[in-house]
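Minutes, methods subgroup
Present: GH (chair), OT, SY

1. OT presented the first of two proteins processed in the latest run. Sequence and structure tokens recorded below as shown on screen.
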Amino acid sequence: MALQIGDKAPLFESKDQNGASIKLADFLHKGNKIVLYFYPKDDTSGCTAQACNLKENYSDLQSAGYQIIGVSVDDEKKHTKFINKYELPFPLVADTDKTVVEAYYVWKEKSMYGKKYMGTLRHTFIIDENGIIEEIIDKVKTGEHSAQILKK
């Protein structure tokens, strides 16, 4: 089963890069939409391109009414290092117990060089102020992700 446009976004509480509690509910009802993006691993080429593209266009995204939250199964320490290295202006969820990736159905079997393994799919969910999924981007272009969100 996968989430669909129009579904209620699964609420979650996890830890951010600082080990502080981060709740999706805290971002709702503030007049902004949420860009909840899932990515496989901190500081890899594709994930870095995606995060840096969001950073480079952060003011445009904010002006258009979006709040950005990244999610991977990396721990707080890796997230802090990633944020500091690339000066990322948005929080990253350390989903080490995989509850968030499983709730959004993005923890799936993947394959590389013929070897199968479990990993996070690169998907983005745009969630409206009421917690409803209004768009799902499942073919993320890492270097152009902001344009996909802003429809430029």
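2. SY then presented the second protein from the same run.
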Amino acid sequence: MFHRRALLGVSAAALAAPRALRAQGNWPNRPIRLIVAFAAGGAADSVARVLAPRMAEKLGQNVVVENRTGGSGSNGGAAVAQAAPDGHTLLWDASSHIVNPSLLRGLSFDYTTAFLPITLAATFPQVLAVKADSPARSVSDFVALAKQRPGTLNIGTQGNATAGHLALAQLQRLAGIEVTHAAYRGGADAARDLAAGVLDGTFITALSAGPIADSGRARILAVATDARLPSRADVPTFAEAGVPGLLIAEWCALFAPAGTPTAIAERLHATMTAALSEPEARARLDQLVAVPVGSSPAEFARFVQEGRATMATLVREANIRLE
């Protein structure tokens, strides 16, 4: 009886293995849902919509972009965390992915275990800009002005706990200054008020700040990247401007549910990097002032882990809260 049961067990496993392999081999066998954790029209959503049709072409199935907003991106995360790990439901998330674990409580999933990182697709550089009539012509001028008038400069960002807010908090910590944070519902709104002179400055994406700077209604002082932007070659990095260590960018990336088969994850990565390398896609990303990346799954997993630890420290030290 023992041997009969053992043989039955082996037979069941032998039958199950080919079915699993066939399922992976046939992937994708229906449209793929790409859950974007943010509203349509934003930076992350715009990049997803550039890449989705190119992914579809390479995979032979439609890639349907579906916006699941709310909860600082956690609503979209929850939808994918609960999905079957079969490669047909994917998460398109942003930098809140590494911030939310330090800010949100009572989630139905664990950010650290629920997802499989596939690739960091693109980054959105953050810039410090001031209103046109500001006496600050450089970052050192801005720091001096903030020290002369502690707590009185109103600096807008895309919102609480966004990359702009975190970059502003880091600038205050590194430069030893105090300003008043004005949280908006997006970079475009903050840029509008900066152009109108309502704000003294903003820490938002280069995409949002660019038009008002080009029209002379604002001035960009520095970019929070390790190298100058080709499209803004005259704008120094913060390190060049005397504040080294300020490196924060918004980003967007592809995740799959934890447990997704390795073969599917590898094909997803190859598909995404191929889409990112297409000249037409890169030209469109350049228009969005998005820097394409296409990191390996291992590199991206390390980036997420290290970023989560860094953001936890910054959130704690700056006493950042979601409102």
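Chair's summary of item 2: The chain has two domains: 30-123+251-318, 124-232.
Next meeting: continue with the remaining queue.
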